[in-house]
Amino acid sequence: MKKILSAALWLLVLICVFPVFFLAAGSLMGSGELGELLNPVLSGGKGYVSWKLFPLYPTLKSYVELLVDTPGFFVMLWNSVKITGGVLIGQLLVGVPAAWGLSRFSFPFRKVIFTIYIALMMMPFQVMMLSNYLMLDRLGLLDTLEGIILPAVFSTFPVFIMYRFFEGLPEALMESARLDGAGEWMIFRKIGIPLGSPGVISAMVLGFLEYWNLLEQPMAFLKSKELWPLSLFLPAIDIKQAGVAFAASVVVLFPALMVFLAGQDYLEQGIISTAVKE
User: Fold this and answer.
1) Cα 235 to chain centroid, rounded
2) I need a labelling partner for 268 at 20 to 30 A (CA). Which of 15, 69, 162, 168 fits?
C-alpha cells in the first residue's frame, strides 16, 4: 500500500514539474525544431502539437535574442523590480505595525476592524477594480507605477498572516518587559519583530510570488507600454517568436523559484499559522 501511495505521489510530482521541464526544453530549441513541433499552432492548421523533453540540437540562441536583442525586456524587468520592491517595502512599513496593533492592543471596535480586514481579503480584484480605478483616477495615479504599488501596500493578506504570529506571542513575556521598564515601542522592536520574524518573512515571500507575477492590475491601470511589467511582456510576444517566449518564461520563473526555495520553511509556517489557532 505504501509503495502504491508513493508511486501515486511521485506521479503527481512529475505532473506538477512537467511544465517547468517543458519551458526549459523549449528555451533550448532552435527555431526549426520549434517550428516543426508547434506547426499546428503556428500555421493555424489541424492536428496536435508534439513535444520533446530534450532538444535535439540544444542552443542558447533564444536567450541571446532575449537578453541582447530585446532592450524592452530590461525595461519591463526594471518595472517589475520597482513594483515588487515598492510593494514589499510598503507592506513592511504599513502591515507590520498594523498587525502588531490589532494583535496586542485592545481598543474599541478592534474585532470589527479585523473582521473587515478578513472580508476585504476574501474579495477578488474584479470586485474592487471599479472602485480602485475611480479612486486612482481621482488621485491622478492612473497609468503610473504608483497606482499599482499604493493599493497593494495596504493589502490585507500580509496583515492577516503577521497577525497570527504576533497573536501567538506569550503575554507574560510582554508583561515582564513592561515591569523591566520597556515601553511599547521597545517591546515591538526588541521582542515583537524578532519573535514574529517568521510571519513577516512568510508574508514577504508570498507577496513576492504574487506581485512578481502581477497581471490583472497592470492590465487595468497601465496604458503606456513602457510601464508594463514582465507579466505583460510574455503575452505580448508574437507566437512566431516561440523560442524567445520560452526563454523569457524561464528567466521570469527563476527569481520566483529562488525566493520560494529560500523562504520555503517560513512559507510553510505562515500557511500553518493561518489555519491553526491555539
Assistant:
1) 18
2) 15
Distances, alpha carbon 252 to alpha carbons 80, 160, 212, 247, in Å: 10, 28, 9, 9
Please answer whether residues 59 and 28 qualify as being in contact, where contact means their C-beta atoms are separated by less than 8 angstroms: yes
Which uninterrupted H or E stretch holds 63? helix 61-69
Q: What is the pLDDT of residue 97?
A: 92
What is the Cα–Cα distance from 180 to 19, expressed in whole angstroms?
Answer: 56
144, with CB counted inside 10 A (0-12, 13-18, 19+), is: middle
Q: What is the CATH number of domain 75-241+250-275?
A: 1.10.3720.10
DSSP 87-115: HHHHHHHHHHHHHHHHHH---TTHHHHHH
Instruction: Please check whether residue 52 is in contact with residue 60, taking contact to mean a CB–CB distance below 8 angstroms.
Output: no
How do residues 180-238 score in pLDDT, each as one tens digit? Answer: 888 888 888 888 888 888 888 888 998 998 899 888 889 889 888 889 998 888 777 77
Q: How far apart are CA 260 and CA 202, in angstroms?
A: 10
DSSP element (H, E) containing 41: helix 39-42
- The phi and psi torsions of 163 (rounded to 5 degrees) equal -55, -45
